[in-house]
Design brief:
Blueprint (H helix, E strand, L loop, with lengths): L9 H8 L3 H10 L5 E3 L2 E3 L2 H16 L4 H36 L1
Antiparallel strand pairs: 1-2
Length: 102
């Protein structure tokens, strides 16, 4: 997605990944993606497009089953949450050290 739009239609996303729009809609339903709507049309953000791209890559390139993709995305989310916990603790330690330092 080269242009600077904030939202993209299902057709634009499908064209970007060179797949049928029905495939984008299927993944949206299958993975319970919360895509905004603008009137009657879906409005995909860059983050939504990244998620769709990740799903397409796992299914088409890495030959994962849909359940395998769900498991991969879930484990990635768990890792991300673990990392956030470490970041939060380090931020707290930094704040304490700054207060001690004066």
């Amino acid at each position: 997605m080269k242009d600077m739009k904030l939202f993209y239609s299902t057709e634009e996303v499908a064209q970007h990944f060179e797949v049928a729009p029905s495939k984008i809609r299927y993944y949206e339903r299958e993975f319970n993606l919360k895509i905004q709507t603008r009137g009657k049309n879906k409005a995909f953000t860059k983050k939504d497009i990244e998620k769709i791209g990740e799903i397409i890559a796992l299914v088409d390139e890495d030959n994962y089953t849909l359940q395998g993709v769900k498991d991969q995305l879930k484990s990635k989310k768990v890792k991300k949450n673990d990392n956030q916990g470490v970041i939060d603790r380090l931020t707290y330690v930094k704040e304490v050290l700054v207060k001690i330092r004066g």
